[in-house]
C-alpha cells in the first residue's frame, strides 16, 4: 500500500472512536429540530449544508426565542468563529494544495477533523501535502455520512417523541457538556466564567444581544489571561 | 415557532458563513503568518459563546416561565462537573439527562 493510501486509512481508523460523540449529537439535533417545527428534509439539509452541531443548536435556540434572522445568523456564526482558528492552524500544512482541494477540506473542517489532523501533522513533519490531504479526507469519510444519517434518524424519531420530555433543556445540557472538557487552562476557565456571569446579567437587552456581548467579553478575558500567563512564565 | 422564519435563509446563510470561516485562512491567506493576537482571541470562542448561550437557559428556563428550577439547575451543574472531570462529552450529557429526568420525576 502506498503512503497516501496508508494516510487515508489511518484517518478513517482514527475517526472511529468519535462515532460515540457524533452519533448521539446528530440524533439529538434531528430530534430537537423536528420538535422545533422543521421538516425532516429541512433538518437533514441543515446538517448537510452547515455541518456544525453547536452552531445548528444555537440557531434553533435563537429561533425559539424569536430573535430576528440576522441575530440568529450572527450568533450561530459567532459560535463557529473557532473554525477560523482551525483554518489558520492548518493553513501552513495545506497552503500548497490545489485550491479546490483546500475548499473540500474547509467544508469538512469540523472539530474532530481539525483535532485529529493538526495532531497528526505535528507528529509527522515528513508528510507531503498529498499525505496530509489524504489523512484529513480519511477522517471526513466516515464522519460526514455518519453525521447526515444520524441526523436523519433523529429527525425521523423526533416526529414520534411525545411533548413534555423537557427537550427545552437539550441545548443547555449539550453545551455545558462540551464546555467541561474544553476547560484546559486558567484562561479557558476565566473565559467561560465571564460568559456564564455576563450573559444572564445582560438578559434585558433586545434580540439576544447578551449572547454576543458576553461571548466577546469572554474572548477578551481569555486572551488577556493567556497573555499574562505567557509573560509571567519563565 | 419556526413558521415565522424563512428557514432556507438561515440554513443557506449559516452554511455559507461557516464555509467562509473554515476557508478564509486556508484558502485566501494561504501559508502567510497570522497575527498572534487574532489567534489568541479565536482560541476562546467556544468556551466564550457556549456558556453565554447556556447560562440564561439554566438560570431562567422558559419551561418554568423564567423561574429558577432545582431540577434544571442540578442537571446543569452535574453536566458541567462530569464533563470537566471525565473530559467525556457523552458521559456528561447522559449524567445531566439522568439527573434532570430523575429530579423532575421525584419533585413532580
Structure, explained:
The complex is a heterodimer of chains A (about 230) and B (about 110). Chain A is mainly α. Chain A has helices at about 5-15, 20-35, 40-50, 55-65, 70-80, 80-95, 100-105, 110-125, 130-160, 170-180, 185-200, 210-230. In chain A, α2 crosses α9 and α4 packs antiparallel against α5 (about 70-80). The model of chain A has no long low-confidence stretch (mean pLDDT about 90). The mean pLDDT of chain B is about 90. Chain B has helices spanning about 5-30, 35-40, 45-60, 70-85, 90-105. Chain B is about 75% helix and about 0% strand. In chain B, α4 runs antiparallel to α5 (about 90-105). Chain B is mainly alpha-helical and about 110 residues long. At the A-B interface, α2, α3, α4, α5 and α6 of A face α1, α2, α3, α4 and α5 of B.
Largest interface by Cβ-Cβ < 8 Å: A-B, 99 and 78 residues
Q: Largest beta sheet of chain A, briefly?
A: none
What is the mean predicted local confidence, pLDDT of chain A?
91
Query: What is the helix content of chain B?
Result: over 70%
Name the overall outline of chain B: extended
Distance between the termini of chain A: 47 Å
Please mark out the parts of chain A with pLDDT under 50 across 5 or more consecutive residues, or reply none: none
Question: Strand content of the residues of chain A, in percent?
Answer: under 5%
Distance between the termini of chain B: 27 Å
Radius of gyration from the alpha-carbon trace of chain A, in angstroms = 19 Å
Q: How does the helix and strand content of chain B classify structurally?
A: mainly alpha
- Spell the H/E element sequence of chain A: HHHHHHHHHHHH
Strands of chain B, total number: 0
Overall residue-averaged pLDDT value of chain B: 89
Amino acid at each position: 500500500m502506498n503512503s497516501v493510501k496508508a494516510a487515508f486509512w489511518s484517518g478513517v481508523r482514527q475517526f472511529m472512536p468519535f462515532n460515540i460523540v457524533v452519533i448521539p449529537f446528530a440524533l439529538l439535533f434531528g430530534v430537537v429540530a423536528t420538535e422545533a417545527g422543521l421538516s425532516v428534509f429541512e433538518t437533514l439539509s441543515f446538517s448537510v449544508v452547515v455541518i456544525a452541531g453547536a452552531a445548528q443548536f444555537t440557531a434553533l435556540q435563537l429561533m425559539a426565542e424569536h430573535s430576528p434572522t440576522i441575530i440568529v445568523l450572527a450568533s450561530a456564526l459567532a459560535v463557529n468563529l473557532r473554525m477560523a482558528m482551525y483554518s489558520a492552524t492548518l493553513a501552513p500544512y495545506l497552503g500548497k494544495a490545489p485550491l479546490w482541494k483546500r475548499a473540500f477540506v474547509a467544508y469538512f473542517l469540523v472539530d474532530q477533523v481539525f483535532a485529529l489532523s493538526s495532531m497528526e501533522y505535528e507528529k509527522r513533519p515528513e508528510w507531503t501535502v498529498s499525505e496530509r490531504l489524504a489523512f484529513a479526507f480519511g477522517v471526513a469519510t466516515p464522519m460526514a455520512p455518519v453525521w447526515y444519517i444520524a441526523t436523519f434518524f433523529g429527525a425521523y424519531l423526533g416526529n414520534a417523541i411525545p411533548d413534555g420530555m423537557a427537550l427545552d433543556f437539550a441545548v443547555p445540557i449539550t453545551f455545558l457538556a462540551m464546555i467541561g472538557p474544553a476547560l484546559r487552562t486558567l484562561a479557558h476557565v476565566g473565559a467561560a466564567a465571564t460568559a456564564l456571569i455576563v450573559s444572564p446579567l445582560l438578559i434585558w437587552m433586545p434580540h439576544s444581544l447578551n449572547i454576543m456581548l458576553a461571548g466577546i467579553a469572554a474572548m477578551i478575558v481569555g486572551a488577556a489571561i493567556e497573555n499574562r500567563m505567557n509573560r509571567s512564565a519563565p | 415557532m419556526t413558521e415565522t422564519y424563512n428557514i432556507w435563509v438561515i440554513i443557506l446563510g449559516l452554511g455559507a458563513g461557516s464555509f467562509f470561516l473554515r476557508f478564509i485562512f486556508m484558502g485566501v491567506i494561504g501559508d502567510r503568518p497570522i497575527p498572534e493576537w487574532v489567534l489568541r482571541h479565536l482560541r476562546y470562542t467556544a468556551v466564550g459563546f457556549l456558556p453565554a448561550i447556556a447560562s440564561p437557559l439554566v438560570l431562567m428556563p422558559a419551561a418554568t416561565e423564567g423561574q429558577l428550577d432545582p431540577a434544571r439547575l442540578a442537571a446543569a451543574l452535574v453536566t458541567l462537573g462530569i464533563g470537566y472531570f471525565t473530559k467525556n462529552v457523552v458521559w456528561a450529557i447522559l449524567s445531566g439527562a439522568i439527573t434532570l429526568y430523575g429530579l423532575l420525576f421525584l419533585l413532580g
